[in-house]
Amino acid sequence: LAQRALDGGATTVLSLGGDGTHNEVVNGLMTAGARPDEVAFGVLPSGTGGDFRRVLEHGSSLAESAAAIGRPGGVPTTVIDVGHIAYRTDAGAEAARWFLNLSGAGMSGHVDRLVNGSSKRLGGRLVFLSGTLRGLMSYRPPRVRVFVDGREVGEWWLTTLVAGNSRWAGGGMMLAPGARLADGLLEIVVFEAAPTLKSMLLTPKLYDGSHVHTDIVHRFEGVEVRVEVLEGEAPAVDIDGESPGRMPVVIRAVPGALRLLDLNPRFA
């Protein structure tokens, strides 16, 4: 639908839903070759995952956001980065997608599959917290080698690796606290495998970003990250809360790729 809108001459495309819906719309726009000088993308908040709304400090209701579209003087915009991830499908075919918030692989992808296969009636935060705790009990870490901007940065038994275009994912987890939407970079955070109890004690720190100061978390910054699987099963990918495939992955930032509408009337 987003591709069709762009082909039909639309200059504004709005996404009504959560992070998975926004991801679908952005993939439609980017696949169709949308340029920031041609079309603007806006978010109307709904759905289970509200992490992109949180990135925008968007405290407005759906009705307020919709009303902001027609405010006098027009709607302010800003140009932001978009992420791109190349991965393998479960069947082994090469595939790629765009993302707004965060992508990666490991337990985060495993949790996506648990969450998306269960009821979401409890809301995003509780659903993702429950999925994380269940994931800790069933995930089997592989050994991986990680390269950032072509330089090998280490080998680890991996719990998860995230590449953040923005800070939040997983229903309010600040997984990449240093990530920013318009700096042309990704924040890469590697969670090294640890005993279950130690990993469980880390979980509360995910909500305020303090996990990055622990000895099992490693942080890097760059335009591109590449991850190879050395031992064990290839872990599932996480792309804005969806998991359509597995490692190996190449994840990169695409600077200034999308023009974003500010539909938060608090800033009007």
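^ that was protein a. below is b, sequence first then the tokens
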Amino acid sequence: LDAATTAFLREAKIRAVCLFRRNFGSEAEVALLTRELREVLGPRALIALDQEGGSVVRSTFLPQAPSAMALGAADDERLARDVGAGVARSLRSLGINWNFAPVLDVNNNPANPVIAERSFGETPNVVTRLAGAWMDGSLHEGVACCVKHFPGHGDTTIDSHVALPTVARSRAELDALELAPFHALRHAAPAMMTAHILYPTLDHEHPATLSRAIVGGILRDEWGYDGVVITDALMMKAISERYGY
């Protein structure tokens, strides 16, 4: 942890950070980094990363967990719970206590360039059962989860890292498919991550991340969700090229 970053974290009273692959060296180096971060951020610090399994992992030296799609093919809730618990134990050994996983997106569009193997299945029922079991395993081992990407990134043909996707479904269609896993697991999820996607029937102007109608109206007011809401990365082009970050 360099001096300039340490000074910034202290002056800004930062209490949570997200690590990316560029922050990862050896196992010993990562453990040292998280110890130094906790000294600066305080004992209640949140140190997070995306360690979903499959291709979306930040640490490559930890035991590699199967993708959500592989767990969906097995369709075994106990196995999904065990994998979630195993991922959590390995993260906790490094001093990491918040994982931006599991994915609740339904894999309902074969042309989707960014979800695919990250989804547990093609139906809300499969996604809810297996992601819920995975999250239960993680929480039991003391690592918080963050389900994503609310209100659903499955039916897109554009990656929000490079442009702004649109999902033009009716509210009834969204309730039956995209929204269903988020609604079902809302009381179990300590945090939800928003999607940089435009849902014209919910908000014709703002993507979900910036939408009072979606985050405030549906998630907070209608569903009564009182957990943490966190954005997907704001430097992704769906946001940064239109609004800045």
